[in-house]
Hints:
With 224 residues, the protein is mainly α. The protein is 62% helix and 0% strand.
Amino acid sequence: MQVRNTLHAYFQDLHSRYGPQKWWPAESPFEIIVGAVLVQSTRWQNAEKAIATLKTFGLLDPARILETDEETLGLAIRSSGTFRVKARRLRAVVQWFVDRGADVDRIRDLGLPRLREELLALRGIGRETADAILLYAFGLPTFVIDRYTWRVLTRHELVPEDVTYEDMKEFFEENLERDRELYNEFHAQIVKVGIEHCRSKAKCSGCPLESRLPRRDRTEALRG
DNA sequence: GACCAGGCACATC
DNA sequence: GATGTGCATGGT
């Protein structure tokens, strides 16, 4: 019960400060799938440029991506970094999407556990990317964990530092109602506060969650 | 120039 | 299962 209240309070703090984040910024579920791969280990702005380039060349389309060789695809998505790797990953996940009928509603009907398993079996789709695709492209209630989530949870001593991805995911899912809108917004808020305040451990002053830090860290933050 | 970003696979122990 | 490393552009 204690943890439930804590998590809801965190969400309220963030939401009242930042307002709705309206994730995922994309025009279609397919664009979200593509974006989820392109944003791996880079800033959203770099992934966004790559998506814009794909659009310019008419490549933001399942069939077009599959008929484009990886070298060409790589050129188009260069700005997102690790582009040769991402070109391969992109083709893999798009191939899966097409094999499943390229129909979001029908694919969703396969159910969360099976879809998560299938996505994780693809080379280039790890837990975070799989959960991002499931939540934001398919609207399925799975909580997305990322580095920022780890930073916030450990910094606030809500979990131990050696916590696993699945442990953090359970931490949220077992203490929040199973609500995709809430999962959607909460993760987006965590990324927002992460970018604004959790890049370095020192920068906490003015963070909406500052007052919820353990006391010694709070005084450190204010001094810094 | 160093460092990190809305990760992941693979090698190695 | 944990830890280390390559991938690579772009911004601070």
